[in-house]
């Protein structure tokens, strides 16, 4: 291979800016502001293709076998490719990701932790994206202005902290973090970590993008090697071609039905095969985005011409020419082996719709009406919602608009309420320029702000009362109970934007657009033709308003203020160290029954305002979890007083009285969001261990980072042995070691005792986190 090192270095110097990505859309020549940043982020701070190529060759020689694409990119970022032990599913890898991205809700705690570290600047390119704190209420312009006023204190903190510590800042209204990353920062072969579970969206551009908690982000921003359990690799081989009503979203809806919400845990899902080329780059991003719903570490597609086209259209042709030189590192080796292989023929794949209440309950659209009727689910569609980080591309909006235009031509509008969420300011400006926004508005749609909105519960919904049974259909990724509108009786279904639009027009789940007819106001019956749209605009994207703030070259005078009396922000105090003793006679705060996602552990919606104030947000600890004792939510017995109270109230009472406590949970505990608040809150309120049948990956790591003990039953049936009024002791901590189980002694209130074995996945480094009280404490010890 012939390497043009000068051009490679120039490219990586530009790419590593953390910068001015918007300048990509204007010219390949960077602004003076961007060039200033080159002195901070030299090419060596980003591994780059040349270093990745060297690492891959070292590992391939060591393993003496072909490598999957996932392995190439992950192992290409190893801290020590020569000495690193590599065993998929067992060993921990020490990695150097290229960059960090944080959304505003999680960035608050991440930056507070970074401030606590005492470091002067971030060591890798990093950005903050303001997308989570904008509530959908009236419409895009009004909602954005309202958010700026309500969140002024938080936005000011993030903007000044970003400027102080060398982090790029995307202002409110910029768009959703994952769309911004795809448009500006993702590229084939990059490794990026983001403080949001849907960071894998970037896999649509051949990137390894992984969702993490804020403490992981702090490690990377500090320049410390980041640990990841060596992922297994699930191969999804695609054949055939997408056509008609079938969309990229149907691929991941089908995969979710096959693997379930925990089937991808500990694995990277790698798509390959001849069918890949029939999917657009943004379509591939959709598939990777929702891979979070199967618990996957991330998902990725091989470098191809669809990615080239997208990179060129977003002003990044320089990346294409460099990536082409290293193409063999950006596709899987011939003959590589996967831990599991799923085969999907795209030509035979039918449109799907998943739900309600879980994203892996998959149904063909042609059958959902009958299934809903049999199950007692409401058939009337109250609201159709398109957009979100999963499905808000130009192509998505165009295909939805093509259906809306057919209805308008017949004088018809949506029977259901209809909302449209552009993924970025660039998408908003471009669909407005090209007429898509007007078509979607004319058919009855309300265009919301360029933000997460209803997808994460930021929706001031007023058309139904809380507790009223109803159905909504969305092109989002998640549909847990009460997630979108805080109403546990809302039956939320996830599907493609095209199917959402069709069902919003028909107003019922029983409508199958492939076979059924709509009735126009004139009485004419007509059938919707399959959606169609350009993959990318024929003209260049319109970048819209410039919403990016680059960190200043000199930030010594920048002051970051946190008002001690604020109820939104609070500086962090270190957690206490382990006292060197076993944890004895801990109370069971709650024994959770069934599904317990991070939404159950630390709710979003109205609680997002407290994401920068640990004590205040801890008032939502486990308020959505079901107590097995009484099948109630937020109602547990205080074992010291005998009275019932809210979960956080009882936790605070135990803490005030010096009583440690544990949580007992079921399967896939902590699935869903990457929010580390679900780990910070139990630690803050006196929790010491979380004992469950098994964990979701990100949450397990987050618990370790905060000095908690995430433990699993060696025998899952031991879950049944624990009673809500038991006392539990964790024995064996003095000899705590990797691979060595701990023992739980359960003391029942009748005086009897029994012992059970508890497994863990701690390695030596992580055990030091526990002993120090948290990973951040350990970082300070080593400074």
TrEMBL record:
For activity, the cofactor(s) needed are: [4Fe-4S] cluster
What the entry lists under InterPro entries is as follows: Acnase/IPM_dHydase_lsu_aba_1/3, Acoase/IPM_deHydtase_lsu_aba, Aconitase/3IPM_dehydase_swvl, Aconitase/IPM_isomerase, Aconitase_4Fe-4S_BS, Aconitase_4Fe-4S_dom, Aconitase_dom2, Aconitase_mito-like
Q: What's the record's note on cofactor binding?
A: Binds 1 [4Fe-4S] cluster per subunit.
Where on the tree of life does the source sit, at the highest rank?
Answer: Eukaryota
Q: Which reaction does it catalyse?
A: citrate = D-threo-isocitrate
Q: What does this protein do?
A: Catalyzes the isomerization of citrate to isocitrate via cis-aconitate.
Name the UniProt record assigns to this protein? Aconitate hydratase, mitochondrial
Query: Which lineage?
Result: Eukaryota, Metazoa, Chordata, Craniata, Vertebrata
